[in-house]
Write a structure and sequence with these properties.
alpha+beta, 3 helices, 53% helix
Length: 72
């Protein structure tokens, strides 16, 4: 999933979504003494039309199932 797709799903402004990611990093650093998100991320290629590089996010299916269970 790309950052743009996350924005579409969350319906948050880009700035607020970025702030949420930063908050997750801060909280996980406090809890685990390092950034340990429940997701993986990497820098994707640049879009040929916009020139913007998207960050890609993914989660192990077992972790995703656990995450869905605790958020319901």
């Amino acid at each position: 999933m790309t950052f743009t797709e996350i924005l579409e799903r969350s319906k948050l402004p880009e700035r607020q979504q970025s702030n949420e990611h930063a908050a997750l990093s801060r909280i996980s650093a406090q809890l685990f003494k390092e950034k340990r998100w429940p997701i993986e991320d990497s820098q994707g290629d640049s879009d040929s039309t916009t020139g913007k590089a998207e960050v890609l996010y993914w989660m192990d299916s077992r972790v995703a199932a656990w995450w869905r269970d605790i958020t319901q």
